[in-house]
Structure formats: structure tokens, C-alpha cells
Design a protein that fits this description.
alpha/beta, TIM Barrel, eight-stranded parallel beta sheet, 8 strands, globular
Amino acid sequence: MPRHVNYVPHGVIPEVLLPFDNNQAIDEASVRKHLRDVSSVEGLSAITVNAHSTEVASCSFDEQRRVLDIAQDEIGAKLPLITGIWANGSLEAARMATLGGASALLVFSPAAFSLGQTPQMALSHFKCIADATDLPLIVFQYPLATGQTYPKDALLKLCEEVPTVCAIKDWVGNVPHHEWHVRTLQNLPRSVNVLTTHSAWLFSSLVLGCNGLLSGSGSVIAELQVRLYRAVQGNDLAEAKRLNDRIEPLTRVFYADPFVDMHNRMKEALVLLGRLPRAVVRPPLVKLDPSEIMGIEQALIEAGLLDKKAPNAA
């Protein structure tokens, strides 16, 4: 039984990182501290685990279950927990959906959909999961370039025919398409919230009217994201622009090429801020070059998050 019943995903929802020790095993003590650090930010709606930011593709089913258990133990009574459902088969996804402790599920697109899909396939995948649990479902809408994006007609079918679909994590990567999501889904007879994860252009995305954001960079800058979201919601664009100017240096370094290193860079940022003891990633990711770490350090200074004279600063 989830601890936060009737939760509807909205507002600012950070995706946390997953600290590893030097042997690439989960560092539970650091996981707990990281969860406490992020969840201490006022104004959050929920916390997400077992997502891209948690390097979920490199984690076994048992590890994902353990991460959820730790999160429930640390913050489950304080904030709703969203857990990712990362599986390439619908039956496996349905099995994962029955894990206890979450208040909502973030459903990843099966990798096979990169080769093509039909609305019937997408509907079958979600109905299989919905039959296994009554938890709210968040549709992960992938970038158009991946081929795993749900076409508009398929997405509408999901929203109309699966009553527990209540939000999408929008990473479509196309501004007109993203705006269509906001205008269409949030105005359905049963509204479906659009949670942007366009963190590389978050200010622009929020101005379109998204009802929330679900972002890995929230593992580092949750407080700035809360303030930005509130400023946009309050139509204080001058304050929103000021906050965006602070966020921009980090956006520039976190989402540089190759894009796959974004959460690797966020780990390095937390080490520089003294919030993690080390920035270990699992293969195929590798340690960042020292020059790139220096760039992250400079971005933290520009954002006003790290003092030039701090022990971790150059």
C-alpha cells in the first residue's frame, strides 16, 4: 500500500542519482544521505528513483527494489515516491509494478519500440501494467530522434483508455510537439499533467504551461528549480529570467555532448559541493576528464552554488 494515496504527479519532482562505491556497488550510506539532502528542499511534490539519473539500465531488478526500499525508509513518510519501471517486456514491467512503497510509476518505453510501434502495442503495454497495479502511471515520452516516442494518436489512446495514466514525462525534444502536449493533454476531459524534463531549456518549457517538471538536474539544483517553477506559475517573468541566468551555466555543462554523460556530470557536481564522497559510474560510462570536471566547477561558481575559496574549488 503506497504511503501517499491519491497522489497526482505535479510540481517539482527531482530524480535522484545513485552513488556507488569504488567497487561499483551501491553505496547505501551515500544513497541515504543524498536522499535526505534532496528531500530537505522545501516545495517539492515528490522524489523519483530508478530512473535514467539512477543509471537504472545498469541495475538489476533486486538493486532497483533495494533502492526503492531505501528511499521508502528515508523519505517515504515525508514525500511521495515515484519509481521507474524499466523493462523491455510488458510482463516483466507488470511484475515490477507490483513492488510496494511507491505512490506512482514512471513507465519507460520498451527498447523494441525504437524499431516501430502501433497504437495497439503501446496500449497493450500500458494495460498490462495497469492490470497489475492501481498506482498512477506516468508515460515517459521519449525524444522524437529515438523512435521510442508515442505518436499523438497512440498517446491520446493511452490517456483515454488507461484511467490510471495521469501524467507524462515530456522529453519529446521538439517545441511545437511539446506545446501540443501541454495544450491537448492538460485540457482533456480527464486532465493528464505534462511534467517537462527539457532541462536543457527548462525556463522556455515551463512558460508553455507545464504543470510540473521531473528532472535529473533536480538532484543538484532542486531549490533553484522550485524557485523557477514558482516564479513562472506566479507570472513573475523577471524573477524567472534571473533564476534562469543562474541555472544556465550548469545547463551548459550538464547537457553538453555526449548527452549520455549528463548524470555523470551531476555526480561530479555533488562531489565538488561536498554532497557525495565520490563520482563513480558503471560501465559503459567512464570517469570524466579532469578538464571537464574543472568546467563543472566553474559553472557551479557562476551559478552561485560554490564559493571560489571553498575547499573543493580550484
